[in-house]
Amino acid sequence: MARFYGAALGRSFAALRVRDYRRWSLVQLLSGTGNAAAQIAIAWQVVQLGGNGIALGAVTGGMMLPTLLLGPFIGALVDRYARRVVLLITATVQSLLLGSLSALAFSGVLQLWMLIVFAVVHGVAFAADNPARQLLVMDIVGRERLTSAVSMNEVIINGSRVLGPALAGFLLVATEAAWCFVLGAAVFLPSIIVLVRLQPMRQTQAVPQRRPEIASGDIATGERRPWRFVATTAPVRATLVLAVCAAASYNIAVVVPLIVADVFHADGGTYGALAVAFGLGALPGALASATGPTTPRSSEVRMLALAMAATVLLAAAAPTLPLLFVALGSVGAVVMWFIARANAFVMLTAPKRIRGRVMGIWAMALPGSTVVTGLAVGALADFTDPRLAYGVVGVVTGVVVGLCWRALRALPETSEPLSAND
Question: What is the pLDDT at residue 12?
């Protein structure tokens, strides 16, 4: 038994044995904390400016619109160019955008339409940042430690989702939202420094060999292959559909501010505390994912998706704030567990030479689909009740799990043999 737990812990933290990954993880915790604080402040600013559920859906969805529209095309560029260079550009752009947003907020001229424009422009940077960040991790740790690295990344992301909302809640009560934007802009600087100093890895990220579908300049032609792979690989196809449900379950920024303000008549500090509860719950979920088998199984994906539907329904039905805190923590745990395993499953199953484009499709599903689901859930919250709207997310997720159950019966063989250079 002791040997079993020792092996599980070894798998959990295998990625942390790599020095460059430890450095990268630390700066990701910092930048993620600042970005999470900024996102909390943006959502609360929408409410303060008189925005409703549709406005919240427009802001959160606008940030994902470029990912939804451009996911696989940007994935092709990530396949072609160095991940490190892509991330240097995206980190710089995001820092400058948040700095500009803070200036608008301090000057008192910030308006709702400006937040929507900011969300879309910021989303362009995020569309490239997301697949590049995932594949840089694989470049750093290698295929054999990828599952550990993906799970550790979820721990880091959700650690930032604890620290960021906590800081945002304090700043929203003690000062104003503009300081959250200042924090978000500043904490990208350590990431930029580490990326500049990062040594080239086992270069799947260097300027690649000339591939006909990319190097010819006809990127659109090259997109047909990843789409064919997804369409003809049933477990991957089903996992991507369930990732859309996970995106809607995860996107608490649409319904929770409305539940806080309209149902419980509380303030921004309460919203920040609920976001902290969600992040705290997500930490054990990500750690649980890291202790699983190195190669995720499709049976795990479907069971976790079923549990995700159940916890969302419990959160939607929570009649009091204390129960909502507990329920959102449970949602965070299960959703993060699902995302970490599903993400590693898709990445390991995709052929190496189209992996960036397949992960671009993954990004279209999660988080890109929030463009549609955010607006739909926000509109439903406006016309009915925010708790009912979140409950519909749980019901739809359960139905989709049932429809995808047979497609997730068996895990296909990984697309390529494990090698030291992958």
Answer: 60
Sequence spans of domains, the chain: 10-202+220-408
Q: Which of the given ranges, 22-26, 132-136, 235-239, has the highest pLDDT on average?
A: 235-239
**Per-residue H/E/C for the chain:** CHHHHHHHHHHHCHHHHCHHHHHHHHHHHHHHHHHHHHHHHHHHHHHHCCCCHHHHHHHHHHHHHHHHHHHHHHHHHHHHCCHHHHHHHHHHHHHHHHHHHHHHHHHCCCCHHHHHHHHHHHHHHHHHHHHHHHHHHHHHHCHHHHHHHHHHHHHHHHHHHHHHHHHHHHHHHHCCHHHHHHHHHHCHHHHHHHHHHCCCCCCCCCCCCCCHHHHCCCHHHHCHHHHHHHHHCHHHHHHHHHHHHHHHHHCHHHHHHHHHHHHCCCCHHHHHHHHHHHHHHHHHHHHHHHCCCCCCCHHHHHHHHHHHHHHHHHHHHCCCHHHHHHHHHHHHHHHHHHHHHHHHHHHHHCCHHHHHHHHHHHHHHCCCCHHHHHHHHHHHHHHCCHHHHHHHHHHHHHHHHHHHCHHHCCCCCCCCCCCCCC
**What architecture is domain 10-202+220-408?**
Up-down Bundle (1.20)
Name the more confident of 255 and 208.
255
Q: Which residue has the higher pLDDT, 62 or 94?
A: 94
